[in-house]
Write a structure and sequence with these properties.
Elements: H1 14-22, H2 25-31, H3 36-53, H4 58-67, H5 72-89, H6 100-106, H7 115-128, H8 131-148, H9 151-165, H10 170-186, H11 190-204, H12 208-224
Length: 241
């Protein structure tokens, strides 16, 4: 079985990727090397920063464009992520790229194992309301995550599965939401931990644990500028990627 260390296999990119996971996007960008692998990572970092901080999208788009000739699949994937958020948050009238539902389906197998099929499931669920089709995609993505030992991908999948399961088996659903937090903590993904904490707090409802979770989320949001999770209320906690 492979492990989360696959993300750090290239020693030129490892330090920047760890800072990206921690939500230090400025530090990650400073350590991103020049050249092809660095250019792709730079685009990933800027898309990641936009996802959490909702900053202007222009810099991320420019970085994606710089990778399009040498890494067309990666560029298409990152563009589809940006277009998904634009549609979900209705943040602008002009499309940033093709329909993300179709684009993620097209990219299945062309980017990191399981990620395109996972995002295809997210777009089916949140943009089309096709929940059963989304669950089928999540099952495929989870199989890929377990095969590759990809803790971050697994954390994303089980969180979406957990929310779906709450309706049939509340305790099992909550267990998956807790597992998502644990997996994200294990791979040092602090913004992602905050999102998973917010999701669990939402599922738990009013009570001492949700109060504590929301305090932790607020602290991370303030320190990392996670605009989506700042007061007065988080944006679409249950629906983010």
């Amino acid at each position: 079985m492979k492990s989360d260390s696959m993300y750090y296999a290239d020693p030129r990119l490892g330090a920047a990727r760890r800072l990206q996971r921690a939500g230090d996007w400025s530090g990650a960008l400073r350590l991103t090397p020049e050249g092809t692998p660095g250019a792709v990572l730079r685009a990933e970092i800027l898309v990641d920063r936009h996802t959490w901080s909702l900053d202007p999208v222009d810099e991320a788009l420019a970085a994606i464009e710089a990778t399009a000739l040498e890494e067309p699949a990666a560029a298409a994937f990152l563009t589809a992520v940006l277009e998904y958020w634009r549609q979900l948050f209705r943040s602008g009238p002009d499309a940033l790229g093709p329909d993300p539902v179709a684009e993620f389906k097209r990219l299945d197998g062309q980017v990191g194992p399981g990620w395109a099929v996972f995002w295809h499931g997210v777009t089916l669920e949140n943009l089309r309301g096709e929940r059963q089709a989304a669950q089928a995609a999540y099952r495929r993505a989870l199989a890929a995550a377990l095969e590759e030992g990809d803790l971050l991908l697994e954390s994303y999948v089980v969180r979406h599965q957990g929310f779906h399961l709450l309706e049939q088996d509340r305790e099992a659903g909550l267990a998956l939401l807790r597992r998502s937090i644990d997996l994200r903590a294990a791979c040092g993904a602090r913004p992602h931990v905050a999102a998973a904490q917010a999701a669990l707090a939402e599922a738990l409802g009013v009570g001492p644990e949700s109060v504590l979770l929301n305090r932790l989320v607020a602290r991370s949001a303030q320190e990392l500028n996670l605009v989506r999770f700042k007061a007065p209320a988080p944006l679409l906690v249950a629906q983010d990627g």
